[in-house]
Design brief:
102 residues, alpha/beta, 3-stranded parallel sheet, 3 strands, 40% helix
Length: 102
């Protein structure tokens, strides 16, 4: 983890939507030990563009104040990355887990 250690691990499941991601961000940010959030998605059942839209919406609703890194892989990954990159939100994208951990 490049010197970091996880403060929390949360799995929102294969049916994640904006509401689920928002609630997950609320849970994570309620812990003062959380200094950043890394989202790792392998979109087989869940499409990456759906998750990306949920992440952007949740980021706005929660007014996230910690760095957010997102690694997407799977169905509609390019569309998902584009949604994140053009959102206007300070969301870092990563191609793999090693890059995300840095």
């Amino acid at each position: 983890l490049h010197g970091g250690s996880p403060a929390n691990f949360l799995d929102v499941g294969g049916g994640a939507n904006e509401k689920a991601v928002t609630e997950a961000f609320k849970i994570l940010t309620s812990d003062s030990k959380v200094k950043a959030i890394m989202v790792n998605i392998f979109g087989g059942i869940m499409k990456c563009d759906t998750i990306a839209n949920g992440i952007v919406g949740a980021f706005k609703q929660v007014n996230l104040q910690v760095p957010l890194v997102v690694r997407l892989e799977g169905t509609n990954v390019e569309l998902g990355k584009k949604i994140l990159e053009t959102s206007g939100m300070p969301i870092q994208t990563a191609s793999d887990l090693d890059e995300a951990a840095k």
